[in-house]
Amino acid sequence: MHVPALLRPSPALSRHLRSHHAISGLGCAFGVLLLTLLTYVLLGSRAAIAVSAGALVVSVADLPLPGRNKLPLLLANLLQAPLVTALIEQTHPYPVPLGAAILLISFASAMVTAWGRFSLPLGYGMVLVLAFSLARPDMTPHELLVHLGLQACGGVLYIGYAMLLARLLDMPMRRRALADALYGFSDYLRCKADVFDPAQPLDEVYANLVRQQSRFAEKLQTARDFVLDERHTPQQDALAAGMFALMDVHEDVLSSQADYAVLRARFGDHPVMRLLAAMTKSGADDVARIADSGLHAGASVLSDAPYRNTRPAIERALHALRQDTTPDKAASLAVLDEIYAKLGSGIDGLRRCEALLRAATPGSAPVGADMRRFLSHSSFAPKALRAEFRLDSPVLRYALRLTLAMLAGYLLSLHLPYATHGYWIFLTTALVMRASFSQTRRRQTDRMVGNALGCVFTALLLHWVSSTTALVLVIFVCIAIAHAFISERYRYTVTAGCVMALLQLHLIAPGTFHIAERLFDTTIGVALAYVFSRVLPSWERHSVPALRNRLLTALRSYIPRALNLQGNDLRYRFARRQVHEALAALSEAVVRMHDEPSAQRLPLATLIVLTTQSYLLMTHLAAARRLIAQRSDDADGDGLAAMMEEASRRLTEVLDPQRPDTPPAEAPAGASALDLRLARADADIRALMHAARELGAT
């Protein structure tokens, strides 16, 4: 059936609807719906509401994660729910103890972020239980015990369902997570093509490349967590082998980086530059095509058609350029030859990557205990929490900010002309206020618009629909949407989450929803979050020194492993991953700093130099590693190893902050390609250290 173009989802939206996020959201929604309907049939509506509340709260933490990371998070959310509920129910009739309980819960919900990004749903779950408990009518001790029991039952049953579903969907989730990483690599390649376009400012291209590299690194880590976890079947091994082949392709593309400023000056808008850009974009299309295929065993989806004309045309253009024997042109031409060879190697590597992904037998993925070093881990160790109880801690400052904002919201709620107990103000304030000023500022518009749309939709729905079953079905749809879009389109998540929360609150306390009140509460909550985001702020400038040091430490570990092919390849891959993660963390801090007051910013140009030169250093070391591999069969293998050990020592010495800032050494005339790459790496490392020292002096 033909679908009009206007009604078709965009490629990005269509891609997201097939992602592991969408599968996870649909699974969460179905679990809550199933438990609610079963309880309704067996025990009636009142028990169903309590069970659904318990399942809903636990489902908030049901992120698209492997089971070993999922279970601790679900259990933590299960345990906090009865504690928060009991605390609010016991203090509900007394304004002062109730206010103290709200502040304690608010402080705790912020402090749990000390356990990292996996713990964010735990904090949200605590605030959601707070809102549900405030909206619920007062209960007798017996009613409270029954309610807590049913709520806990809903949470336990949901955990059992979630873990069973994770086992049943193991292979689809592995494939979808890896497909998402492939899409991230495709986006990176499209950005890479811009380096060949002289009309694109090179500084902006490099900044975009670093951002795309950071996004790809994040998606790749998610893929590692799924694909490398508990491999027991040939299909699982095939996915792991394909993922490592993808990382090798990325290394090929990374090692093709060159001094594009010189190339642009030498060749400008020469056809060979446009052809290299076209070849890179064709590679991006191939990567997306592999991801679109679902990564199942079967025939290849790739074709040589995009390259049948491009490759011969590039070779003819290079041949014509070789007729000019001018020394500076000859050197630049050698760089073009190298770029073309690396891109060609990467494209050929894609064929190997796809073949491994579709193989019915195990691939060549490394195995062993070392693989656990590549996986993320969710942990709720008390040590991490205790370490944040210091006044300069961003986590503690965030907790104090949120607590003060919630205190102001509670005091305001006592004087509002309607008896809502301020639960919607608290919910809005806690969700808008984030640990950084930048995140709070970005979320305020989405929260206002999303809540407004959600309130209007809920008002219309409750006006026309009175069936509890129909409302539960709407909650089911909203859970799926809220989970599916939380990482991509936050406004969709806010709107769906608003409808979900309002309908659940309506089921808990019928007749308490009034659109004007909820919109007014939303405005108050957003305003409080924004105002208090400037209280005890944690500006990004204060996090930069630690992030800079983390990057330099990662580079010190990476350099000797990059220049030594005799060592453990897994250790090299792990060191490379640490650099990518450190670079991503610093890049994200730079992006957040853009939203902060100008008086609180560090020199953005210096930060961009630090991130860009670190990225270029990795590209030159990756290229040097490839060149070392090509010369590893030389007769003088021991001499090559000694030369690389000396080069490694020289480069790591430059990373010493106490070392004087000296100019880079020039490569001698007639230097080999390996010597040129090492000379460029030396120039990069000195430039990034110059930027690092400038930041240290700011």
Order of helices and strands: HHHHHHHHHHHHHHHHHHHHHHHHHHH
Classify the secondary structure makeup into a structural class. Answer: mainly alpha
Task: For the record, give the distance between the C-alpha atoms at the N and C termini, rounded to a whole number.
Answer: 62 Å
So how many helices?
27
Low-confidence stretches: none
Average pLDDT over all residues: 82
The biggest beta sheet is recorded as: none
The number of distinct structural domains comes to 3
Strand content: under 5%
Shape: elongated
Present the secondary structure layout.
Layout (H helix, E strand, L loop, with lengths): L10 H7 L2 H24 L1 H15 L7 H25 L3 H17 L8 H16 L5 H28 L1 H24 L8 H26 L6 H22 L4 H8 L3 H22 L12 H4 L1 H12 L5 H31 L24 H5 L7 H20 L9 H10 L4 H28 L3 H17 L5 H19 L6 H18 L7 H23 L6 H25 L10 H27 L6 H18 L18 H25 L1
